[in-house]
Amino acid sequence: MKIGFIGSGNVGQTLGLALIKRGHDVMLGARTPSKLVSWLETFGQNELASVGSIQEAAAHGEIVINATPGTVSLEALREAGSQSLAGKILIDLALPLDFSNGELRLSVANSDSLGEQIQRAFPDTKVMKTLNTVTSALMVNPLSLADGQHDLFISGNDADAKKEVIGYLKEWLGWQSIIDLGDISSARGTEHLLLLSSRVYGAFGHPDFNFRIVG
């Protein structure tokens, strides 16, 4: 499958690498594609790995993944262009982190979420919020923790697209338990989970953890 990434930082590079290893045709999109030369060189002559502009990556992907910092996600996606995103699934990994006052806060909170803002801005795109509650290392290797016995969440309005993405997460990355939280407004909960995760990180001293829901 052709997959386009909007955003080319650690998350995009880590997830992109994992998907290329599984045989997918991946393009990382960045405002300055030349900065990704070293990442691209690690693949040698592998035709499944490419880099391009944000617009090129969005057009390339049958599925598009938003791996930008949350505070610039809307700007980057608008740069990608609504036509390139229309009708497609957009997997949104971003978190609206705000460090402007010296402490971790969310720039979107309470009665809204970044996932909802993206869906409103791109009504013809099927926005699926997921993978935003774990580190990039755990995204691509859930079996590295508790034999995979922990939970991922997904939020989105389109039921068929959601089932499709759940299937991809299981097939591509090895996730075993994915909890459907409902429509895109439930992204408020998973985005807010970062505030708890940051405290757990402080208590544990490392980010290699996740949550398991027992009921």
UniProtKB/TrEMBL annotation:
UniProt entry keywords in alphabetical sequence: Oxidoreductase
Gene3D superfamilies: NAD(P)-binding Rossmann-like Domain
Name under which the protein is recorded: NADP oxidoreductase
Superkingdom: Bacteria
The UniProt record lists the keyword Phosphoprotein: no
SUPFAM superfamilies: NAD(P)-binding Rossmann-fold domains
Taxonomic path: Bacteria, Bacillati, Bacillota, Bacilli, Bacillales
GO MF annotations in UniProt: oxidoreductase activity
UniProt xrefs under PANTHER family: DUDULIN-RELATED
InterPro entries in the record: NAD(P)-bd_dom_sf, P5C_Rdtase_cat_N, STEAP_metalloreductase
